[in-house]
Amino acid sequence: MKSKNLVSLFVAAIFLVLAITGLLIYFGQGSHIVDHTHAWFGILFFVAAVFHIVNNWSSLVGYTKNRRTGAIQKEFILPAIVAVVFAAGIGFDVPVFDKLANAGKNLFRGDRPRGGPMEQTKVDSIANAVETAYATAYTKGDTGAIATILPVKTAILTEAGTILSGSDIQKNILKRTTPEVVKTKVDRAEALDDHMILVYGTATNSTATTPSVYTHLLKEQDKKWQIIAAQRAYPAVQ
């Protein structure tokens, strides 16, 4: 097995995946899986590129400068200029590069405003669906369903001022000895962007005498909406 052939094929295969995920991200069609795939294949591409450079060092040197005179080859100048121009333009946030970077997303987004791209009816529907699913799963003690809505790393600021995680909520459900019936009511929901919604609501618990107000930050990941941050408090007495 020839190492040069193997490395070249690795570079080609990895580049193909990077090209696909890069285009998906550029046109605003990325997701958690796409982002992670792009990141990991970027690392693989770096490793493969190092081996490729080592295997082809003499050829690359020949492409860069004339072996007899030591002068820089003309073929090297254009790629070097393009690389420097793009690096400087992106680094100094030149307007044309900023527009170019967002052209793909704007093409798919169209003229929709950035601050609230989703219709309010859709926002309300998503918010109510997530909150109802959470309340139902909590009431039933279904930790599996809870985990899909409230990830283990979700941070929750409670009424008492303590900070819990989604994992803590699951453990508390498993420890409880008396049934708890939780009901939620969405008072208001706002879209922060295409994939994030801020929900303000009121919740009641059969074990508590006073309802609490809550704020949930919902995020869409892999076409699933989850609560990624939460805050609960007792309403102030006027």
UniProtKB/TrEMBL annotation:
InterPro entries linked: DUF4405, NTF2-like_dom_sf
Boundaries of every Flavinylation-associated cytochrome domain copy: 6-57
Highest taxon, organism lineage: Bacteria
Record flagged with keyword Transmembrane: yes
Parts of the chain that traverse the membrane: 7-27, 39-64, 76-97
Key words, A-Z: Membrane, Transmembrane, Transmembrane helix
UniProt protein name: DUF4405 domain-containing protein
